[in-house]
Amino acid sequence: MNKGYLIAHVTVSDPVAYAEYAQAAGEAMQDFSPKIVAWSGQYENLEGESHERHVVFEFSSFAEAKRFYESPGYQAARSLRAGAATGTFVLVEGTAS
Asked: Quick one: which of 4, 14, 62, 90 has the fewest CB in 10 Å?
């Protein structure tokens, strides 16, 4: 089964509110145990809209990544992000290795 990836590109406008979101999202994520592939750090925006933070989480499958995103715990956390940040969140299925 191919891995699933949740990729987020985010620009924070309210650091205090975003910190609340980040804590709640981390708690929601505990039931899913994704691997952190990338977490901000150095980046270079080559094309398209630029964001200041970039995160890639690896899940056991695309379905599991989607199950996390749609989970009640993450959706509650997501509501805390409204107004605190803008960004793009994408689910991507990995390739067979």
From this structure: 90
Q: Is the pTM of this model over 0.85?
A: yes
Q: Where are the alpha helices (DSSP H) in the chain?
A: 15-29, 62-70, 72-81
Mapped to the 3 state alphabet, what secondary structure does 49-64 carry? Answer: CCCCEEEEEEECCHHH
Helices 62-70 and 72-81, interaxial angle, to 10°? 60
pLDDT confidence bin for 1, thresholds 50/70/90: confident
Kind plus residue range of the DSSP H or E element containing 39: strand 35-39
Sign of CA dihedral 6, 12, 18, 19: positive
Hey, which residues does 57 pair with through a beta bridge? 6, 36
Q: How far is residue 90's CA from residue 34's CA, in Å, rounded to a whole number?
A: 15
